Amino acid sequence: MSEEKPKTGNKLVAIILVRGLINVGPQIKDTINMLRLRKKHACVVIEETPAILGMVKKAKDYITWGRINEETLKLLVEKRGKVNPDDKNRTKPFFNLHPPRGGFERKGIKTPFTMGGVLGDRNDKINELIKKML
């Protein structure tokens, strides 16, 4: 008898680059590039895996992330969907967003979300931020 591992489901994570990449160390810059976040306010939607979560935690001081729902994903693809011209398969969309209407949270882009800022894990609140940035 072989036991099958339970599938984790297709949990999608939206990752947004909040801060610029000036004076950033080379390891963190490479990690952000591997996540396909090339400029400020860029967003990617990726399936949640341990490797992706490791990269996200490494770059936590420059990005915000959370689980995206179907409604927000549909809006995002309709309004801002682009495909990387260098990607031969053209299957990895990325999104260039506006700065959020009404601004970021009160404490700004250098403070973690848990302390009233923007950075870090937002869980389901990422959907509100994306709707402000469309």
Q: Notable features of this structure?
A:
134 residues, alpha+beta, Ribosomal Protein L30, Chain: A, six-stranded mixed beta sheet, 4 helices, 28% helix
Structural notes for this entry:
With 134 residues, this protein is α+β, with helices and mostly antiparallel strands. It has a single domain, classed as Ribosomal protein L30/L7 (Ribosomal Protein L30, Chain: A), CATH 3.30.1390.20. Helices cover 28% and strands 19% of the residues. It has a 6-stranded mixed β-sheet. It is globular, with a radius of gyration of 15 Å. The termini are far apart.
Q: How many angstroms does the end-to-end distance come to?
A: 50 Å
Structural class comes to alpha+beta
Strand order of the largest sheet: 4-5-2-1-3-6
Tell the overall outline: globular
User: In CATH terms, what is the architecture?
Assistant: 2-Layer Sandwich
CATH superfamily: Ribosomal protein L30/L7
Characterize the biggest β-sheet: 6 strands, mixed
Radius of gyration: 15 Å
CATH top level is Alpha Beta
Binned strand content = 15-25%
Domains, number: 1
The third-level CATH topology is: Ribosomal Protein L30, Chain: A
Number of helices: 4
Mean pLDDT, nearest integer?
85
Order of helices and strands: EHEHEHEEEH
Q: Low-confidence segments, ≥5 residues, pLDDT <50?
A: 1-8
Helix amount: 25-40%
Any chance you could write out the topology, listing elements then pairs?
Blueprint: E1 12-17, H1 26-34, E2 42-47, H2 50-58, E3 63-67, H3 70-80, E4 81-83, E5 93-96, E6 120-121, H4 126-133
